[in-house]
Amino acid sequence: xxxxxxxxxxxxxxxxxxxxxxxxxxxxxxxxxxxxxxxxxxxxxxxxxxxxxxxxxxxxxxxxxxxxxxxxxxxxxxxxxxxxxxxxxxxxxxxxxxxxxxxxxxxxxxxxxxxxxxxxxxxxxxxxxxxxxxxxxxxxxxxxxxxxxxxxxxxxxxxxxxxxxxxxxxxxxxxxxxxxxxxxxxxxxxxxxxxxxxxxxxxxxxxxxxxxxxxxxxxxxxxxxxxxxxxxxxxxxxxxxxxxxxxxxxxxxxxxxxxxxxxxxxxxxxxxxxxxxxxxxxxxxxxxxxxxxxxxxxxxxxxxxxxxxxxxxxxxxxxxxxxxxxxxxxxxxxxxxxxxxxxxxxxxxxxxxxxxxxxxxxxxxxxxxxxxxxxxxxxxxxxxxxxxxxxxxxxxxxxxxxxxxxxxxxxxxxxxxxxxxxxxxxxxxxxxxxxxxxxxxxxxxxxxxxxxxxxxx
Length: 457
What we know:
By secondary structure, the protein is α+β, with helices and mostly antiparallel strands. It has 2 domains: 11-118 and 171-232 and 330-399 and 436-450, FAD/NAD(P)-binding domain; 125-168 and 234-328, D-Amino Acid Oxidase, Chain A, domain 2, CATH 3.30.9. The protein is 30% helix and 24% strand. The chain has 11 helices and 23 strands. Strands 1, 8, 9, 10, 15, 16, 17, 18, 19, 20 and 21 form an 11-stranded mixed sheet that branches. Strands 6, 7, 11, 12, 13, 14, 22 and 23 form an 8-stranded mixed sheet that branches. A hairpin with a 5-residue loop joins β4 (57-59) and β5. The longest helix is centred in the C-terminal third of the chain and has 30 residues, at 379-408.
């Protein structure tokens, strides 16, 4: 869900860590460059030439620059008037919020450095508690396989449990594009460009009454805003994923599987098109000397864990290489920073092993939406209320996810725990790491009822 990842995008092969900047908290950094319409950095001209009150360019609903006179050195992130809301990041959180707000008739800019569709690092499992949001947006996920069970695979034991409702295995290529299209259809203005600075009332040169950060788990803007977690090196993890096709079909119903290895784990999820996503998370301490060579790391864990050797042996790569990430840091985050409303991973990270990341991203947009609307007139009150609501809705899930991750990243301890074979373990895990679908549906119904027209746009 991110528009900018600490100086480099998610990439094939490895990722380099970035040091936290020394900028003072809440002091927007002066950006030395602006953006042309293709997102190419340009040297900034005189400030007056890009004033929001005298900008010679505007944006149509498709986000294409329209000129009414001779060309001028104006950023495409400049608007003739202030927008209601600017959302920085068009992943599941950003696009969901853009769709909800645009349906109210608000002017919304949805800014992302990438064109859609595009791939992202993710476990690509959409939990059942996201379905009320999927339904209210009118998304068709029939191409995504329904997943009814979870299987935890240890060294010597397995443990399975059922979901109370079907989940979906869906790639970020598919889901993010569908959500982005939904937001644009609702009236949000898509802008494909690399942003350089953010403040509570602007993104680069575009002015907005409310700014929302939806740039994901790690971004240059976290450094600009002086967020404390970027300096944490003890809790750094890195993710990696690749799509595969099965050499030997396992047969039976679709399941999501979790595998353990030292200081990390894998999630294995079927996705659309008959493919399988194998996504892992590992503590940074295990990666010294590998220099981003994920193939070498996978060979290492295959040699360590026979179950992983069996897993990879029955799969054939369907992508040229691995997709990896900037650091994933499990530290507390505030949902409002310097007046900027945060959603999705920018507001707090649930451990990926829960399979609840995409659901929480979409839910965070639904939770935030009424407070963003309120912030148009009463920003300080809305920020306080959103902070409290966010903590109540998400903080317990995030805390429980880390407790379960501690177990899953220690194969011996996991095997010992599975000796108990408690039937209550699966339901307990789900109850503490997910929202109740009925609670999400209540939020969705309340939002729908608040719209002038109760039918989906």
